[in-house]
Amino acid sequence: MGWDFCSAWTKQADVKNYLLGSFTEKVLAHKTTAYGRRLWVAVEAADGTRSIVLALLDKTMDESMGPYYWDCPTSLLDLMGEPRNEDARQWRAEVRRRAAAGKRTLDVGTEFKHSNGTIYRITEVLPRGAYRVVDPTGRPYRLPKSHVAHIEVL
C-alpha cells in the first residue's frame, strides 16, 4: 500500500484517468464520492473473484484492508460476489448499514443520541434532509443529512 503521486497531475480527472488505467483487473464499474475525492472501483480478477477498490487522490486500497470510508455506492456492492475475507465482509455490512441509516427520515419531536453521546430533540425539518435540533439545555443546532447515519433514535 504505497502512495501514488505525479507532479503533472493538475486536475482530479488526471488522477482518475491514471488510476483507472492502472488496474490489471477488469474494471466492472466505478463511481466517485466526496466531491470526486474518492474513486470507488468494482474489479474482477482473472480467476473471477470480485472486489471493491478505494482510490483516494494519493493512495489506493481494497476492501480487504477495511478502509475507514463507508460512502461506497451500494450499487457497486451489488456487483460483488462473496467477500475475500472477514474484514471485507464487515466493511460491506457497515457500508450497507450506514447507507440505510442515512436514508431514514425523522419527524419533529424525535429524540436521538448522537455519536458524541448527547441526546437531542428534532424541532424542525430543514431543506435537503437536514434538521434543526436542540440539546437538553435548549441550545439549537443544525444536524446535516450526512450525520443522520451516526445517530441512535431513542
Task: Give your account of this protein's structure.
The protein has 154 residues and is α+β, with helices and mostly antiparallel strands. The chain has two domains: 12-103, no CATH class; 111-153. Helices cover 21% and strands 29% of the residues. The chain contains three helices and nine strands, in the order αββββααβββββ. It has helices spanning 12-21, 74-77, 86-103; strands at residues 26-33, 38-44, 50-56, 60-62, 111-113, 119-125, 131-134, 140-143, 152-153. The strands form two sheets. It has a five-stranded antiparallel beta sheet with strand order 8-7-6-5-9, with no helix packed on it. A four-stranded antiparallel beta sheet has the order 1-2-3-4, covered by helices on one side. Strand 3 (50-56) and strand 4 (60-62) form a beta hairpin. 16% of the residues are buried.
Keywords:
154 residues; alpha+beta; 2 domains; five-stranded antiparallel sheet; four-stranded antiparallel sheet; 21% helix
Beta-strand residue percentage = 25-35%
Assign a percent range to the helix content: 10-25%
Strands ordered across the widest β-sheet: 8-7-6-5-9
Taking all Cα atoms into account, the compactness measure Rg is 19 Å
Low-confidence stretches: none
Order of helices and strands: HEEEEHHEEEEE
Mean pLDDT: 86
Distance between the termini: 41 Å
Largest sheet: 5 strands, antiparallel
Tertiary shape: elongated
Number of strands: 9
Question: How many DSSP helices?
Answer: 3
Total domain modules: 2
